[in-house]
Fold this sequence. Notes:
The chain contains nine helices and 14 strands. By secondary structure, it is α/β, with parallel strands linked by helices. The chain has two domains: 5-147 and 291-310, Rossmann fold; 150-288, Rossmann fold (3-Layer(aba) Sandwich). The strands form three sheets. Strands 10-9-8-11-12-13-14 form a seven-stranded mixed β-sheet, with helices on both faces. Helix 1 packs across helix 9 and helix 2 (64-80) packs parallel to helix 3 (109-120). The mean pLDDT is 94.
Amino acid sequence: MYGTLKILTGTANIPLAEAICDHLGCTLTPCVCDRFSDGEIRLEVSESVRGDDVFVVQSTCAPVNDTLMQLCLMLDALKRASAARITAVIPYYGYARQDRKVSPRAPISAKVVADIIGRSGANRVVTVDLHAGQIQGFFDCPVDNLFATKVLVDPLIPFRDQLVIVSPDAGGVERARAFAKRFDAPLAIIDKRRDRPNQASATTVIGEVDGRIALLVDDMIDTAGTMCAAAAVLREFGSREVLACATHAVLSGSAVDRIATSDFAKVYLTDTIPLSDAARNCSKIQILSVASLLAKTIHNIHTGSSVSMLF
C-alpha cells in the first residue's frame, strides 16, 4: 500500500472530481491551473504530495488540447514533487478514434497521446469505455478500461422484457451484444449498403424490432447525426419506442438540437464529459454519473484490492 490517498483535477470536469471525492470521503488537493498572459498554461500543486498515492482526474475533452496539456503538466509536477505513485484517471480519452492509420501518411494519434501521458509521469491509467480496446496496448503502464454498462443498465431494467438491443453499425455489434446478454434480449443491427458508387446508401434493420422498445447502444454520441438517423429507421421498421444510451456525451455542433427533435423518447448519457446547460435542460437527455464507479476503482487501486471485479 502506498502513502496517503490524494485526488487532483484540472478544469476539464471539476463536478465529477468533486463527486468522486464525496464518495471517498476526502477533498480535492488544491491545484492552481490558469494561464500566463501569453496563453501558456500555468500549473502548480498547492501542497506536498511526497510519498503519496495520487490520482489525477482529468478527461481529455473539449478543449481537448488544453485539457490534455493540463493533464500532462499535472503528471510532470507530481513526478517532480516525489509522489510515490501517480494514476491518471481519464474518464474520456480524447483522440481515441484515431487508433490506426486511415491513409498512407496519417498519424496514429491515440498512440502519440498514450506516449505523452506515459512520459509525463503516469504510473497507471484508468479510463472508461475506450473507443477501441486495443488502445490499452499503446501504454507501457497498466491500464484499467472500465465499462459504464452497470451505470447505464439500471434505469432500463423496468423495460427489460420489451427491449431489443440495436447496434447503430456493424462496428458496434460487440458492445450491443454485451448489453443484450445483460437483459437476455434479442439483438438487431442497422445495416447501410451502397449498391453503386455515388448513389445514396440503402438502410435496413437486421433483426426483429417491430412492436418492441429499441435501445440503441454506442460508446459516444458526437454530432448525433448517425444515432438520430438510426432512430428514424427503427421507427420506420415498427419499433414502438426508441431509446439510446452512450457513455461519452461529446455532443458537438448542433447535436443537442438534433436529439431534441429526434424520434428518441430518451437518451441516457454519463458525466465522463461535462454537459452543457442546453444538454442538461433537454427533456430527452438523462444524465447518469460514473462517480461511484470511479471512486470504487480508486479505492481498490489504493488499497491493493481487485479492480477486475468492477468489470
